[in-house]
Amino acid sequence: MLKNYLKITWRNLLKNKGFTAINIAGLAIGMASAALILFWVQNEVSYDQFHQDKDRLYQMYNRSVFDGKLWCWGTTPKIMRSALKQDYPQIEQVARTNKCNFLFTLGEKHLTLAGNYTDPDFLTMFSFPLIKGNPKTALNDMKNIILTEKTAKKLFGDEDVMGKTIKIDSVDYFTVTGIMKDLPNNTQFDFEYLMPWTYMEKVDKQVEKNWGNNSVQTWALLKPGITEAAINAQVKDITRKNSEIKDIDVFMHPATKWHLYSKFENGKIVGGRIETIRLFSIIAGLILLIACINFMNLSTARSEKRAKEVGIRKVVGALKGSLIAQFLGESIMIAFFAGILALIIVQLSLSGFNNLTDKHLIIPYDSPVFWLISLSFILFTGVLSGSYPALYLSSFVPVKVLKGTFKEPNAVFSPRKILVVLQFMCAIVFIISTIIIKEQLEYAQNRDTGYKKNNLVYTFMTGNIEKNYRLIRNELLTSGAAVAVSKTSAPMTEGWSDTWDYTWQGKQEGAKIDFNMYNTDGSFTKTMGLKVIEGRDIDAEKYPSDSLAVLLNEASVKIMGFKHPVGQIVVNNGTKLTVVGVVKDFILQSPYEPVRPMIIQGPKSWFAVIHYKLNEKNTTAKNLQLAEAVFKKFNSEYPFDYHFVDDEYALKFKDEQRTGTLATLFAGLTIFISCLGLFGLATYMAQNRIKEIGVRKVLGASVFGVSSMLSKDFLKLVGIAFLIATPLAWWGMYTWLQGYTYRVPISIWVFVTAAAVTVIISIITVSFQAIKAALANPVKSLRSE
Amino acid sequence: MIKITNLEKFYRTEEVETIALNKLSMEVNTGEFVAIMGPSGCGKSTLLNILGMLDDPDAGSYVFNGVEIAHFNERKRADLRKHNIGFVFQSFNLIDELTVFENVELPLIYTGVSSADRVKRVEEVLDKMQIMHRRNHYPQQLSGGQQQRVAIARAVVNKPKLILADEPTGNLDSSNGNDVMELLTDLNEQGTTIIMVTHSEHDARYSHRIIRLLDGQTVMENIMV
């Protein structure tokens, strides 16, 4: 019996090569897309779930009221660890982590690597196994370092590195005491090496005991049997008990929620990554469904061809059940071929997908679970796409089909029509979303930044740069590499600090107004290409009192309520600062948000970055070459490192760009798969109506008349799909845009464009078959009776 | 073998109700060869479908081999049908994707005959129908006469007690038609009961008895000599 089924399936597939190709290609693309998304989802939900003690692992969080709202954040005071260790016997281990960046020197090799400072407990709390070294002792000494396998290879090649010495930042020598297995692709931790916390205290030259400075992450492992609720009741008061700060609650965020549920609103978890995962899972399901719908539609459209077979089988004794089994078997077989093709597609597109999603996903070919899941996936797809056709085909009554009187009903609401509408509805929603996402992206990208990004470069002040700053600045200018240089506290594209500790004349008593803080030593407006609206730039060389001068931006002037800002006094932390100028608002942080009030302080403050405007008379390559020579001369131990501000600024759009690319991809795929199905349906429709077309032509219908008659039916379905899709897409995109203060309005043209695109694509798809049918010689079709 | 009494069948559409069989009664004995004749729309095919258990009557009784089956469900009817009845159609109704051999083998698969037995029996019957040399061809590669031989082979491979033939020569030229009628006569002589619907007086003459239908009722019975 099975052999008989397989035989007839195989022959059917071969006989209708066109439809087999459409079916398999459509299903394969759908399966591949769904599989890629599911790979991604699987990776996301497995984040940090591999830690053996994940059920007992927590991150310390703070909760407090600002501007009338309850905020939660995951950075803590450094001192919190010792308080946790001392006073809470329920806690087994505590470790802190903090990022660090050092120049590693090994002979002639110089590498800047990013790592973490951490406490020794880290190695036993988390499941990051050491290949070499003892996790209990590896970080005990201040000059110990643990390298990941990759880092060890980068530095030493294939040598055995245990016990070897590395020079760090040209000041200290560290001994390698452990090699850690490379971090898996599903952890939030990201470091190339681990250093002892004690070394950070040495660099900082103090053991900080301030409960008000939240700058590190603290992780805790509870003893078995302690519940989250119980420990949270205990640690809530830890800050109050140990300091003067009275308005901060502390709580623990469990490892099972770190990655997926990390968005807090008003003190409660409201979601986070999980929302994207849900959305993507739905999209995966939809794409697979759309592909399955193709299969359903094509199989049932071809039912007239299969009807006779069903009738005969029933006459000679087949029951409905065995026919259902036969047709399901067919669809599973097709799904199987599609599955193989899908696997090839996934393998081929995985690196592109990884680029797009910033992941390192791999197909686990050696995992039996993977194959088991793949087979179930194929089976699921086969049953999903085959169940409706199987029920439909197996219910034919032999008396009718064998007499040749069988004709499909042409109902107003046939399931096939509903399915086509569903497909195009999804496609149109994706198209509209894509257009709006791209519009929003463009809208934000075209927003005036307020300064001139081109040819603006910055370099972080490492090693001796700060010490030799004046020399470096002068040589950058005299060598002709740069036309202006300014030392600042942060890159032009990042807001590193903010404070509400400013007072001025006329400030409301008790008002908490937050300002972005930024520092410059001078030449700020010239280097950045900023517009001075009032007053002048800070220039301590010309005006020695300018070491305590400040610039305001327009937003600051407005919020401070100054009519004549220049000459006003602003007090920060007891220091009196004089306003010497006002600059036009410029975007420091998010291009989607309004510009925040900002105060730019003069030379008597701290610095971290040098900005320099390259000389437009030289080529960029030449400028960089000159600049490199300058930096090498005054900071020889460090490699020359530079960042173009326009590149960094472009990174602000990375998320939206990714969303846009993904939406385009989804829209393209759904419309492609839908059209594939539409093409197949049109083909069958043309075949089924061949006699009608013949008669019409004999009676004088034109080719145009016939082909538009055939196309009209399908366009109606696309039209209905559009009507349903429009409000859905509007609502979805309206909700998405609410996340941006600076957002594009949704215009009617988006919908008009989407409608036009869909209609044109479907006309092209359908009319090919319609015109072919209309052009056929009626004599042939009528004779075939 | 067959006894029907007061059999009724209606067809309803939205506007009209058509009576296909109007209190029809008849009997067919084992070993008989009966022809059913009548103009288009007289109910011949409806009767044949009900006799073949492909359709059920709206009223009346149908006793097959002493068992009342008028109210059998689909499963029981299918079971009874596949062991007892073979069908021959005007348009042959062979499955295009299966070879001659596989088409004939089909009923044996559904009655659960073992693979080795199937080969033996199919070969036997193909030999008898003189189409053994075509066993690996597909229906489209055969002439009409050959296709009908395959269809008859398929109808008899399960050794049914009854063969129902619906205008078996309707799509054939007279020479091929005669061959088919000879085949049916042979089968009948070997003991198979045959009920045949036909428009052809010529074909009807091969039978023992002609039942003439009009408007769903028996109007005349001729006994052939």
UniProtKB/TrEMBL annotation, chain A:
Protein's cellular compartments: Cell membrane
Chief site of localization: membrane
Annotated ABC3 transporter permease C-terminal domain residues: 282-395, 665-774
Domain spans labelled MacB-like periplasmic core: 20-237
Keyword annotations from UniProtKB, A to Z: Cell membrane, Membrane, Transmembrane, Transmembrane helix
Membrane topology, from the record: Multi-pass membrane protein
Transmembrane residue ranges: 21-41, 279-298, 323-350, 370-397, 418-437, 662-686, 714-734, 746-771
A GO molecular-function annotation: transmembrane transporter activity
GO cellular component terms attached to this protein's record: plasma membrane
PANTHER family in the cross-refs: ABC-TYPE MACROLIDE FAMILY EXPORT SYSTEM PERMEASE COMPONENT 2, MEMBRANE COMPONENT OF TRANSPORTER-RELATED
Record protein name field: FtsX-like permease family protein
Taxonomic source organism: Mucilaginibacter psychrotolerans
From TrEMBL, chain B:
Entry-linked Pfam families: ABC_tran
CDD domains: ABC_MJ0796_LolCDE_FtsE (cd03255)
InterPro entries xrefs: AAA+_ATPase, ABC_transporter-like_ATP-bd, ABC_transporter-like_CS, ABC_transpr_LolD-like, MacB-like_ATP-bd, P-loop_NTPase
Record bears the keyword Cytoplasm: no
Keywords, alphabetical: ATP-binding, Nucleotide-binding, Transport
Top-level taxon of origin: Bacteria
Record carries keyword Nucleotide-binding: yes
GO molecular function: ATP binding; ATP hydrolysis activity; transmembrane transporter activity
ABC transporter domain ranges (all copies): 2-225
Gene3D superfamilies per record: P-loop containing nucleotide triphosphate hydrolases (3.40.50.300)
Entry GO CC: membrane protein complex; plasma membrane
Family: Belongs to the ABC transporter superfamily. Macrolide exporter (TC 3.A.1.122) family.
Protein name in UniProt: ABC transporter ATP-binding protein
Species annotation: Mucilaginibacter psychrotolerans
